[in-house]
Specification:
This protein is about 45% helix and about 15% strand. It has helices at about 40-45, 70-85, 95-105, 125-140, 145-155, 160-170, 175-190, 195-200, 210-215, 220-225, 240-245, 245-260, and strands at about 1-5, 10-15, 25, 50-55, 90-95, 115-120, 205-210, 230-235, 270, 275. The strands form two sheets. It has an eight-stranded mixed β-sheet with strand order 1-2-4-3-5-6-7-8, sandwiched between helices. Strands 9-10 form a two-stranded antiparallel sheet. The longest helix has 15 residues, at about 70-85.
Length: about 280
């Protein structure tokens, strides 16, 4: 891991194949760190410059006492891109990382070439938020780790590998409680993605999961109305943590998307979402 300082706050990242022509920038979810994209980093290192970040408050990055909003994370991401000289990266975010990627693309339209949002909470139904209110409260209480792990288990399919599931969930959260509680509330309960979706004009792929489709975590029809350049996909046989449990599917989808929407591609998208040669 490498460290850089932004106004005294250390931000950690991993960079592989810095000579790669096209950059893939990976952004993890709430309570996680860059290792959730280990399989993607290993796959894309052969052909791309790969940068995986530890968001502020997570992993090896500093965790100042503050509010952890999508705007804060997006501003950090823009600063990292500037410091590392990342030109037109394809930004891939899982869970909360997808919210960060969307906010980033809306706030800094000149930086990314495209974004991929993996099973993120985007324009959720009211029933979904009501169901998660007890979890948001529990994450601020003394038994927050038990509450988190129970929630994480519910995001996995019974058919997924039990050993890997135990390892993944047992290692979380990779951040202090105050970071977890703030980031969860800000990306699930309080984040209004409508403005960011309408303000994002680069190509977007949303890769959902079977569980995500059942939970009403994302209103994809409304998302597509606000961002007509949105393309939809779904994994098979995986729950929320698809980059970990079905990496081959995610890598294949990312490869197809990157081939069309890499900075070197001449493919364009018109406002209706149709491809233009």
């Amino acid at each position: 891991m490498q460290l850089i300082k932004k106004k005294g706050v250390k931000l950690a990242y991993e960079e592989i194949n810095p000579a790669g022509e096209t950059t893939m920038l990976f952004v993890h979810g709430c309570g996680c760190d860059h290792t959730d994209f280990a399989a993607q980093s290993e796959f894309f290192r052969r052909s791309h410059r790969v940068v995986s970040v530890d968001l502020r408050g997570h992993g090896r990055s500093d965790a100042p006492d503050q509010d952890y909003t999508m705007a804060v994370f997006a501003d950090d991401l823009a600063w990292v891109c500037s410091e590392l000289g990342l030109t037109k990266p394809i930004v891939v975010g899982h869970s909360m990382g997808g919210n960060v990627a969307l906010e980033f693309a809306a706030r800094y339209p000149q930086i990314p070439s495209s974004i991929v949002v993996i099973d993120s909470v985007i324009l959720p139904h009211r029933s979904f938020l009501d169901a998660l209110q007890p979890l948001a409260e529990a994450l601020r209480g003394p038994d927050y780790q038990a509450a988190l792990r129970h929630a994480l288990l519910s995001m996995c399919l019974p058919t997924e590998d039990e050993t890997r599931k135990t390892q993944l969930i047992g290692s979380l959260p990779k951040c202090p409680q105050y970071v977890l509680a703030s980031a969860f509330t800000n990306h699930v309960m309080d984040y209004d993605a409508a403005a960011a979706a309408a303000g994002c004009h680069v190509p977007i792929a949303y890769i959902g999961s079977y569980l995500g489709a059942l939970s009403s975590a994302a209103d994809l029809m409304q998302f597509q109305k606000l961002a007509p350049q949105l393309f939809l996909a779904q994994t098979l046989g995986s729950g929320h943590f698809s980059p970990v449990f079905v990496p081959d599917q995610i890598n294949s989808m990312l490869s197809a998307f990157a081939e069309i929407y890499s900075p070197a591609s001449e493919t364009l998208v018109d406002p209706s979402g149709a491809l233009l040669a």
